[in-house]
Amino acid sequence: MLKLFDRAKDFGTRKALVSNNTEYTYNELIASAEAVAANLLSDTVDLKEARITFLVPPSFEYTAIQWGIWKAGGIAVPLCVLHPLPSIEYVLEDTQAEIVIAHEDYVNFLRPLEAALGISVVPMEAMFAENNSNLPDLSPDRRAMILYTSGTTSKPKGVVTTHANIEAQITALVQAWEWEKDDYILNILPLHHVHGIINVMSCALWSGACCEFLPKFNDEKVWEIICSGRLTLFMAVPTIYYKLIAFWDHASDGERKKMSEAASKLRLMVSGSAALPVPVLEKWRTISGQTLLERYGMTEIGMGLSNSYRGERRPGHVGLPLPTVEMRLVDQENNPVGANEPGEFQIKGPSVFKEYWQKPDATAKAFTKDGWFITGDIGMLNDGLYKILGRDSVDIIKSGGYKISALEIEDVLRKHEEIADCAVVGLPDEEWGEVIAACLVPSGEAIKTDVLNTWLKTQMPGYKIPRKYIMQRELPRNVLGKVTKNEVKKLF
């Protein structure tokens, strides 16, 4: 039996999940997961790592299905409820799954794939029919889950994690962020991604805590839940904090005071999945007294680095390696770089994924000969804490012999009072290699770029100032709120 399930039995009658205005105990979660497992097994004794895909919104049912797949010996492949049919078809084909478990809202949406792929669409309710079965013994080195990368540079790859990988990812965060059984967290994140699955839901369930689902983000509803006083932790992506700030800005003085007081009482608030603009961090601190804890992670490693729970949380930095995580910064020849020198993050440890699904060449390329995972992210050690400079293929602009961080330029641009948001990219150029281009979201009227450039010259060296600008009402983003830089480039 896996440790996650052993621990759940110990928590028995404690409240585990709140979903669709209903409370569920750990015992109820275990019973439902075992019914799902029995229905999946049917006449077999072990799914033997069969890939089971499921399209279910964040809910009690989602969790029970994930646990049921694991208990039956299968590999859980959660699908994104916001993805179009071709994206889902790609995952089903790539995993060679034979069934997809579907919430009633998505059964008809998925029906065309039955004929196209020869796959069975199974209504979610059928999985919860009363059923019992002997469940297989599971070893921690079994494959447990496949999550798909965002595919910003090529087709998405299936990232395979074992039960041991998942346990390592959970326990590192539980230790670093001091989770306890009396914690209560709101989950407003999509559950096809490590942030929502591991950092929020799984850490809560490992700890005997409670996770409440809000399947669709609503700024007023989130503030209402914060003001209820039941939360002890809150985790979100930067765009959610941006929207919560905007809601607070438009509230009355009395409502603002109530919201600020409630937010100040949480023991921890975390931001991740995309770079947190320093102005957003500072505004949130003004509103709530909370300094958002930033951390660094990715699908392949879970979380790798984190600012301190009890110590310094420095804006624009991601702290130090988490427990059990080994990290190094290296140059292009894999030689270690010194302090204040940019290098690539490479990670080792039990939380690092097993492989890319059925892509042995891509898996081999992802690791150095001595076993370090190559993240592709560039950063530096700055006065004792690590800082992300950007992704080598997206955020590092190579212009006129300089390597320039797009994230650094974005931080400066956001300080300007007429800029609500921005994205900086490099565009191919014969003379310079790449030129810096900025997509701006004005806070009011269109921005005069000549006036902006004059101001920028007082803020940073001339070679970092954008050569091209466009204005947009909003930036293109993926379902996690991360700006899709390749789509920004297309706008130019």
Automatic annotation (TrEMBL):
Keywords: Ligase. Residues 6-357 form the AMP-dependent synthetase/ligase domain. This is Long-chain fatty acid--CoA ligase. The keyword Plastid does not apply. Residues 408-482 form the AMP-binding enzyme C-terminal domain. SUPFAM superfamilies: Acetyl-CoA synthetase-like. It comes from the Bacteria. Transmembrane segments: none annotated. Belongs to the ATP-dependent AMP-binding enzyme family. One of its GO terms (molecular function) is medium-chain fatty acid-CoA ligase activity. It comes from Maribacter algicola. InterPro entries: AMP-bd_C (IPR025110), AMP-bd_C_sf (IPR045851), AMP-binding_CS (IPR020845), AMP-dep_synth/lig_dom (IPR000873), ANL_N_sf (IPR042099). GO terms for biological process: fatty acid metabolic process.
